[in-house]
Design goal:
211 residues, 2 domains, 5-stranded mixed β-sheet, 8 helices
Length: 211
């Protein structure tokens, strides 16, 4: 039996180290960490993420899957519910760091199953509602910023310089590892992933800020 932490790291403030520290502080003894970095949970289902696929392949009956919150397991209500039910069907126990919730398929009592499934559905719906509210707030903020800048929205100022951008591109072309690049260049792993996956967008952000 293994205890596996699955983390999704899509922004600078969602570091892998922070999520592991939170899990261990909550009392979990983590055997393995599986993480998708630079991946948006809003647009990509768990099974479509590189390490999400690996998670489905490696989890076995009796294993414990730890996540910060159930929104790590899907992009919307249906994805989250489907992922949890599939893991339970396989005999995997899902536990959350926030509120220490536990979901498993051990119970055979229909009333307990109904309560469990209703709770999963409620939490999944709440997670999707929160994600949609966040996106709406972001859209409103962007529109406000555009109006304040005569319709020209530059977004958040890049956390990297042009020299760092070019250094990252060069090292990526040499197939240097992400962690080594981040340490060598002095940028975050998220920045390296951004340059790796969307180099044109990363460069455009520099141009918009005149960097």
């Amino acid at each position: 039996m293994k205890t596996i932490l699955y983390a999704r790291v899509s922004t600078a403030d969602q570091t892998l180290a922070h999520q592991r520290t939170q899990a261990e502080a909550a009392g979990f003894k983590i055997d393995t960490v599986i993480a998708d970095e630079g991946v948006s949970g809003v647009h990509t289902s768990l099974a479509e993420r590189p390490q999400g696929k690996r998670l489905f392949d490696m989890l076995r009956s009796g294993d414990i899957l730890v996540v910060r919150w159930i929104d790590r397991l899907g992009r919307n209500y249906a994805d989250v519910c489907d992922a949890i039910r599939e893991f339970m069907r396989r005999g995997v126990v899902i536990r959350t760091v926030i509120n220490n919730m536990t979901f498993d398929g051990a119970t055979k009592d229909p009333m307990q199953q109904a309560v469990r499934d209703a709770l999963i559905a409620f939490m999944a719906a709440t997670a999707q509602a929160q994600a949609e509210a966040t996106k709406e707030a972001q859209r409103a903020g962007i529109e406000y910023a555009k109006a304040a800048c005569d319709g020209r929205y530059r977004g958040r100022k890049p956390s990297y310089t042009r020299q760092q951008y070019e250094a990252v591109r060069d090292m990526l072309s040499q197939e240097v590892g992400v962690s080594e690049i981040a340490t060598s260049v002095g940028v975050s792993r998220q920045t390296v992933y951004r340059v790796k996956h969307s180099p044109s967008e990363a460069e455009s952000a520099l141009a918009l800020w005149g960097l």
